[in-house]
Amino acid sequence: MVEHGDIRVVYRGGNKINFREPVISNDSRFLLCASGESVKVFSTVTEECVHELRGHTGQVTGVLLRPSNHLQVYSCSTDGTVRLWDFTDGILIKTYVIGYPVYSIHASPTHKGVVFIVTPMQREKTTELFQLVAVNLPQTPDQLVEARDLSAVLSDVSPNPSTIAFGRGGEYLASVNGLRMEIYFFKKNKSYSFSLREYSKNGGMNTFTCIACHPKEDCVATGHDDGKIRLWRNFKHKKEYTYSTLHWHHSTVSSLCFTPEGTNLLSGGVESVLVQWRYNQENQKDFLPRLGAAITHVTVSPDGALFCTSHSDNKITIIQSCVKVSAVIQGLVKGENVTTGLLVDPRSKALVLNGKPGHLQFYSLQRDKLLFNLDIVQQEYIHESGLEQFQVVRAAFDASGFWLATVEERKQKCAELELHLKLWAFDEQTQSFVLNTTVSAPHEARITAMCFDQAADSQTSTLVSSSRDGHFKAWQLGSAAHTDDEGPSWSCDFVGAYHGLVPRCCCFSADGSLLAVGFQEVVTVWSPTSWELLTTLSQPPGDIRNLCFGQLSCSRYLLGSNDKKMLCCWNLLTCSLEWSTSMDVSLLLVDSRSENMAAFCFQDGSTDLFVFKPNEPRPLFSQKAVCSGRVTHAVFTPREVMLESCEESSQWLNRSQLYFLTEFTELLTFSTRAEEEKLMASSKRLIIDDSVTMTPFYLLLGKHRHEHVGKEESVSSLSAERDPLPQSSVAIRELLQTPAHVLPATSFLCSMFAKSLLISITETREENKHADEEMESEKEEEDSDEEVETRISRPEQEAQRVRGEESSAPTLTKAQVREVRRVRKLDHSWITGLLDS
């Protein structure tokens, strides 16, 4: 990732969890998967993320359970390191420095202290060629270890982990790449290569896509582009090999996996169906259909109790033995085209963008979890190539988050464009949005921009939409008295145009008193109260791409960029151009919580970032090549807790965080070093109880339990003289410790348990009698002692008065008085015997 002093670009939130094959722990309680620069540990029961293993500085490319310790896991990354973790406690145990980017990792129980990784070939720098090497991991107590003992095993391999597999517990290793399969035998130190033709007789593509090895027999299963599965046997002798073919998938087989005992073979592809083949009875197969999206990976837990599938919509499905879906872990859905841009829900502070076809997804960046999907189109999506269906292309929130506006469109061949403008109101009971108004054909052409009046104290909500038909329209919410009994609805309040030019962008000022609409090369400023054209602003030639009003102390400025690589700033008080600079701004946005503005500029195949204030000539922050390609969308998200950064270059991140989406649909953000250290420290404080799954409820209950224990300890320290609590009864102990299958009937146990809690009446009466006698004797002794003390103290007091002295004798405590009484009762006759002698 790109670094710039104290700030660097990182994957944070919304990362792909389907990038690599997930791993299930031996006890089937946890699921681990690569997610950006970290490894996430999920509970297979609650679907919650219980740990996030942070430490890598590059994309995590593989996760692997350590064969010699089922509580530890390896992770590899493009940062050139292999790290060993204790995933139950979230602790980094060791870091092995390889020195080269690592794209996948493999291991077998027979090769102790050795892992196999895929790295680029050192000699080949121009072509993308990879090799499989064995790495001897040094057994040293140091946490940071140099692992330079590398030995090549296979060359010209694929970086995809699904193309490499161990067979028979590590006796041999199989790899596929393109049209060639290579099997390496460790004892013989020899490899055999098998090739296929590019096309079969019926025209199918024979390219290898994935591989799996039988755990107990010499059988290798390979998947192919044409949907076929081949089972290879007798490959120990190259000339005598055979294979059989299985065919159910109509397209590419993306993943294969044998069950731990080798009785079944699992396969998945674009059909969203998990297929379970009976080994040696391939005619018998079971199906689990309608999993929601194309399957990218299939894996099985070590005990065979759980199956797991990764999907193209960034989802992981946990299945109980191919019978039913038990859990779904949904990540941020990343489609091919995010037409709505990146939005922030003012209520939940969730990131909102295109999700499943016809839906908007609400994704929590703080919890890194999908909250819910909102069905906008409300039509069943048909998975058929070439079929045009309704798509959500625009969305906008008002300042309070109560209203949501969406635009959906469909363009069919030889048919007019279908447009729908929908306005949704937030329902407090369902905690979701409910459709309020639908406007069919709000414009005669595609809608280019849409925005709400963002004034917090605005009495009426106003929505403005601009279209290629040369008009912009203002929509307002009508009062309930002038509408039907269903409540208020939205209607068009004004239609504006300017000399037949096409409006491409629009925005409201922070206080809602001005509306700016960009008509190709002209910026027009309107009054929303009277819809009067106030002024037009000139600029250098070029169609306007972006318009943004300044915030807070910079609210008098209006900034815009055009397709002629110019960024202009106008002063609205003087209606003149304040300054302009030559910049190819592809995206311009403003932070609503500060005066800061961000400009993404595309140059030489990468995107640069400039953060600035409109009234200052020097930018607050600038960074070259934050990512390759163009930045398509970006948004400032408010922070829950303000950062206290002292560095001048990172103060613009104190109130808000900047997220941006690349043309490769990668969601990235900027992070400070202090923020990452804080995240690392917080992750180390989380420790999982071995018997309880870490959930939000458990965290709350555990905190309450710790507070309760702390209070009990403080109370016990204050009342140390309190009598100890009674021990548990024999009946309760026997009831809890006796095995359930030998216990008597519940009715008998209930009566026995109730009797054990009763106290005998005779015993209590005798105890009370003895207590009363002791109290009476102590009272008599106290009375006699008081008489003696008074007789002794009176002459002493008289003598003191004679001497004119005041009595300053200290008062005795009850314990000291009790000790004096005990000493007085002792028999001192033995002293007289000593004196007589």
TrEMBL record:
Gene Ontology terms: biological process: positive regulation of rRNA processing; positive regulation of transcription by RNA polymerase I; rRNA processing
SMART domains the record matches: WD40 (SM00320)
Instruction: List the subcellular locations.
Output: Nucleus, Nucleolus
Residue ranges of the WD repeats are 53-95, 246-287
GO CC term, one of those recorded: small-subunit processome
Q: What is its main location?
A: nucleus
For bias type Basic and acidic residues, the affected ranges are 789-806
- GO MF annotation list: RNA binding
Identify the residues that the record assigns to the WD repeat-containing protein 75 second beta-propeller domain, covering every copy.
Answer: 342-663
Q: Which UniProt keywords apply?
A: Nucleus, Repeat, Ribosome biogenesis, rRNA processing, Transcription, WD repeat
Record's superkingdom? Answer: Eukaryota
Q: Where is this region: Disordered?
A: 765-818
Q: Which Pfam families match?
A: Beta-prop_WDR75_1st, Beta-prop_WDR75_2nd
The keyword Amino-acid biosynthesis belongs to this UniProt entry's keyword annotation: no
Task: Kindly give the PROSITE patterns that the UniProt entry links to this protein.
Answer: WD_REPEATS_1 (PS00678), WD_REPEATS_2 (PS50082), WD_REPEATS_REGION (PS50294)
Compositional bias ranges of the Acidic residues kind = 773-788
**Protein name according to UniProt:** WD repeat domain 75
In its UniProt entry, the species of origin is given as: Iconisemion striatum
